[in-house]
Specification:
Layout: E1 3-5, E2 8-20, E3 25-30, E4 41-45, E5 51-61, E6 66-70, H1 76-80, E7 86-90, H2 104-107, E8 111-113, E9 121-127, E10 134-138, E11 143-147, E12 153-157, E13 162-165, H3 169-172
Parallel strand pairs: 8-13
Antiparallel strand pairs: 1-2, 2-3, 2-7, 3-6, 4-5, 4-7, 5-6, 8-9, 9-10, 10-11, 12-13
């Protein structure tokens, strides 16, 4: 989950899973499917709970991960000491989403309404499918998988933290 520090909300963007080579590169399991690493700096959470920025001087895409050269990490031992740490980035510095685009972090936890149902649901997660992403929506009685598409969604309000489904969506996806 996001962490706040001095008014900034830090979002996890990946996990350091080990060292790469002998010159202090770390292997980062990036939580996105982008082919290029877009950040010139990442933040690591210190034991004090504060976030420390480290410049990324080089990034190399590997199979399923990125090898990053981070400021101040000079040796393989330095890189290995970061294994298991999450890498964060301030949400306010993310690229601005277009009006019909959303960051998953903004959707997860959002209230879900279908007009004919009395109970409310919550978005539990988002599944990347390679085509249309799929929302995992939990209601009291069960969970539904619904495509993130305006074919099924009436409205998404980031300000209201609310997603309204079109009438009949849950009945259509009611697979036992």
């Amino acid at each position: 989950m996001p962490r706040e520090e001095k008014g900034k909300e830090f979002i996890p963007i990946g996990r350091i899973i080990g060292a790469h080579g002998v010159h202090g590169r770390v292997k980062l399991l990036y939580f996105s499917k982008l082919k290029a690493f877009p950040y010139s700096k990442i933040y690591l959470k210190e034991t004090t709970g504060t976030y420390r920025g480290r410049k990324v001087s080089a990034s190399l895409p590997l199979k399923g991960v990125f090898a990053l050269k981070l400021e101040g990490i000079m040796t393989r031992t330095d890189a290995q000491s970061l294994t298991g740490k999450l890498a964060y980035y301030p949400k306010e510095d993310f690229a601005k989403a277009e009006s019909d685009e959303f960051y998953w972090i903004d959707l997860i936890g959002m209230t879900v309404i279908e007009p004919s149902r009395s109970q409310l649901g919550r978005i539990k997660g988002v599944i990347e499918t390679g085509g249309t992403d799929v929302l995992e929506i939990a209601f009291e009685d069960r969970e539904y998988l619904v495509p993130l598409s305006y074919n099924w969604i009436e409205n998404i309000s980031l300000e209201g933290k609310r997603l309204v489904l079109k009438e009949g969506t849950l009945e259509f996806f009611n697979v036992h």
